[in-house]
């Protein structure tokens, strides 16, 4: 529970009191009210910062306590992906890897060079 909104409201009330005191030329009460309002605002800012820090720490603790999310891919998809990468890496050229060896890159393909 945080009290900084009530502190800000109290500071506003003290500021209104200051305006009345100034209107009545009561300078000492006006100074005291301004001083009180300033202190309340500073205190409220500190409270608000502490409140935000506590919220962030609680959120961090909640995130740390959560179980790990599932892996992004199911195991059979991961093995399929590994097989596809192995096939692509062992292909003679990129078009061959992508087209199941039906197309080849004539500029870089070693198979075409051997075939010709
Ligand atoms: Zn090729």
Give an account of the 3D structure:
By secondary structure, the protein is mainly alpha-helical. It has two domains: 4-65; 75-115, no CATH class. The chain has helices spanning 4-23, 27-65, 75-90, 94-98, 110-115. Helix 1 packs antiparallel against helix 2. The longest helix has 39 residues, at 27-65. The mean pLDDT is 88.
Largest sheet: none
The succession of helices and strands, N to C, reads HHHHH
Distance between the termini: 81 Å
The total number of structural domains is 2
- Strands, total number: 0
Structural class designation: mainly alpha
Number of helices: 5
Assess the beta-strand content as a share of residues.
under 5%
What spatial form do the alpha-carbon principal axes imply?
A: rod-shaped
Mean pLDDT: 88
- Rg estimate, integer Å: 36 Å
Which stretches are poorly predicted, pLDDT < 50 over at least 5 residues? none
Question: What share of residues is helical?
Answer: over 70%
Bound molecules: zinc ion
Itemize the secondary structure elements and their pairings:
Elements: H1 4-23, H2 27-65, H3 75-90, H4 94-98, H5 110-115
Helix pairs in contact: 1-2
The structure holds zinc ion.
Please provide a brief summary of the model.
The protein has 116 residues and is an all-alpha fold.
Keywords, please?
116 residues, mainly alpha, 2 domains, rod-shaped, binds zinc ion
């Amino acid at each position: 529970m945080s009290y900084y909104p009530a502190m800000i409201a109290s500071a506003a009330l003290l500021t209104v009191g200051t305006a009345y005191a100034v209107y009545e030329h009561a300078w000492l009460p006006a100074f005291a009210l301004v001083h009180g309002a300033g202190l309340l605002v500073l205190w409220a800012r500190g409270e608000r910062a502490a409140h935000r820090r506590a919220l962030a720490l609680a959120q961090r603790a909640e995130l740390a306590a959560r179980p790990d999310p599932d892996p992004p891919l199911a195991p059979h998809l991961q093995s399929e992906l590994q097989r596809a990468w192995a096939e692509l890496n062992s292909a003679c050229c990129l078009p061959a890897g992508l087209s199941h060896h039906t197309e080849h890159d004539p500029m870089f393909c070693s198979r075409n060079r051997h075939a010709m």
